Amino acid sequence: MNLNELSILSLYSAMAVYALAFIAFSFDLAKRSAAVSQAQGDALRSAGPESARSAGGAGGTATLTRISARIVNDASTPYGRSPSLRVGVSLTVLAWLIHLVADVLRGLAAGRVPWANMYEFAMTGTLLIVTVFLIVLTRADLRFLGTFVTGMVLVLLGIAALRFYVEVAPLPPALQSAWLVIHVFVASLGTGFFALGFALSAVQLLQFRREAALGAASSVPAGSVPAGSVPAGSVPAGSVPAVTVPDGATALAWKNPLRFLATLPSAATLENLAYRVNIIGFILWTFTLMAGSIWAEKAWGRYWGWDTKEVWTFIIWTIYAGYIHARATRGWRGSRSAWLAIVGFSAVMFNFGIVNVFFKGLHAYSGL
Questions:
Q1: In Å, how far from its chain's centre is CA 197?
Q2: Distance CA 302, CA 300 (A)
Q3: Most buried by CB count within 10 Å: which residue of 48, 135, 166, 211?
Q4: What count of Cα atoms within 13 Å lies in the side-chain half-sphere of residue 287?
Q5: 83: which residues sit within 8 A by CB, 6+ positions away?
């Protein structure tokens, strides 16, 4: 068995462990939902009417303009560590180590850095996404994103292994440069930060919708609870006065399938974290754009040529520049900034999965 075959075996082994980590993180989300239901029931039974209103709208609605290096614990429902969460993180670390071995073996088999075609870029890029996630975990408790990170890595590696795989081949002349190491690695690292920022922004939108609905529910006058809005057996008869709640708020407050959101940081905290992560990604992407121009001048004799890949790299830079500018100077906070971050990462994925494969140009090095 040669080095490339060992790399493939290691990659599939890493995917199997990532799948187990995904299952463990999914179990944790289920436990979070159960913990929220239990906490709501206990609060309603023990403290009566006033707690019913405060439990629905408590926690996480105040806007935070600054946060410490470690994540603020402002979840409306406290949640302790669970065995499934610890197992998920441990399995992710193990999968990362096996993934690293697969990447290094591919590089040794090729006799160069392992990111010269789509298959290798996907392998290295997903490795860096997980690397960024694990590093950020040492500064902020973002383990609740484990399901998203491991799930996305599994999907990308599966597509790479099934659709993008190519045998080891020599580098084209234009890629035989030290800029291949610098330019592509920094782009991959920036993508890792953008991926984490995308995940935080997506959760922020869900949390913002939940907080808005619960705020509306807690502000309405006493009336009658719509039939079927309170789970059977969760509140003793006569313990809570009837409350008229808008339909959307009722669905979220009492029958929301995403109850685990109550154990996560507030939308404001998630937004601040996403902003910090995306700024790092933007700095790296700025360097990517500059390094690519320098490399293009050395390889093709011009800094800019309106090649499809160059254009989309600039479009991504423009979207994130707009996101940072709008949030910092125009007051674009809340859902608008989150949508900008999501559009930016969607452009990154389009650049990787569509432009590289279906658009021809000087950057057509997919190997397919």
A1: 6
A2: 6
A3: 211
A4: 16
A5: none
Q: Which of 183, 251, 258, 247 is nearest to 220 (CA)?
A: 247
Q: Which residues of 252-278 are buried (b: 16+ CB within 10 A; e: fewer)?
A: bbbebebbbbbbbbbbbbbbbbbbbbb
Q: How many CB atoms lie within 10 A of CB 46?
A: 9
Q: Please state, in angstroms and rounded to a whole number, the distance separating the CA atoms of residues 357 and 351.
A: 9
Average the pLDDT over 57-76 and give the result: 47
Number of helices followed by number of strands (H, E) in the chain? 12, 0
Quick one: tokens of 107? 């590089």
Q: Quick one: which of 120, 103, 108 has its CA closest to 10? A: 103
Cβ–Cβ < 8 Å for 267, 295: no
Picking from 97, 98, 101, 131, the residue whose alpha carbon sits closest to that of residue 114 is: 101
- Cβ atoms of 290 and 185 within 8 Å: the answer is no
Euclidean distance between CA atoms 125 and 160, whole angstroms: 11
- Report the SS3 class of residue 327: helix
Which tokens in the block code for residue 8? 């493939």
What would the pLDDT profile of 48-57 be if each residue is shown by its tens digit?
A: 555 444 444 4
CA distance 16 to 30: 21
Residue corresponding to tokens 């790296």:
284
Q: Which residue has the tokens 């719509």?
A: 226
Would you tell me how many other CB atoms lie within 10 Å of the CB of residue 182? 16
- pLDDT value of position 42: 56
SS3 call for 117 = coil
Of 108, 123, 131, the closest CA to residue 184 belongs to 123
CA–CA distance, 110 with 171 (Å, rounded to integer): 9
